[in-house]
Amino acid sequence: MTSAMIRSLSEPWPWYVAGPLIGLLVPALLVAGNRMFGVSSNFRHLCAAVLPARLEFFNYDWRQKGIWNLVFALGILVGATVAGLYLDGNADVPLSAAARDSLSALGIHDLGGLVPAEYFSWSALMTGRGIVMIVGGGFLVGFGTGYAGGCTSGHGISGLADMQLPSLVAVAGFFAGGLIGTWLVLPLLLGA
Question: What would the mean pLDDT of 18-47 be, rounded to a whole number?
């Protein structure tokens, strides 16, 4: 591989490449005999593998239903590790001047990486605000995926492609929650 090819692989893929690849995922799953795609069910599969038959909820054949999904989740972890260690995570994220001004008004000034170190660091996590954001956010995501019967990828990619009305309702709820979180909750948490 040439250095130009390696450099191009270390940069984010354009939408016109990544979007169709994600779109082709659902037909590939249907051809392979799987109708469901998502990540939130992996926690149940993992618990069923580790704690078989201790609870009725985990008493099912997780190998038949979830082995491919667990391998997919492992791929996410491996891909994130490779991206974090070897790809250019210090490059500036391209943001408009208006977005930079809005973030600055919220007290976010460190825009030199993928996430602002002011809020995504161990020192920021060990504050009251950090614990509320991480633990509270994690609880809400976990509760939401359980209540909605799946996660954003499951409903937004697989469920909508399968034209399921509950997925449409769930995706509308995800967007409404994102808007409320962005415009109401985040400014409260960040004290802006």
Answer: 77
pTM: 0.67
**Do the beta carbons of residue 103 and residue 111 sit within 8 Å?**
yes
Tokens of 110: 């460190």
Q: Which whole-number Å values give the CA distances from 81 to 78, 84, 178, in the listed order?
A: 5, 5, 26
Taking CB atoms within 8 Å and a gap of at least 24, the contacts of 109-113 are: 113/89
Q: Over the stretch 67-77, which tens digit does the pLDDT of each residue have?
A: 777 888 888 88
- For residue 48, how many other CB atoms are within 10 A of its CB? 21
Query: Which of 39-43, 65-69, 177-181 ranks highest by mean pLDDT?
Result: 177-181
d(CA 113, CA 88): 9
113, 90 in Cβ contact below 8 A?
yes
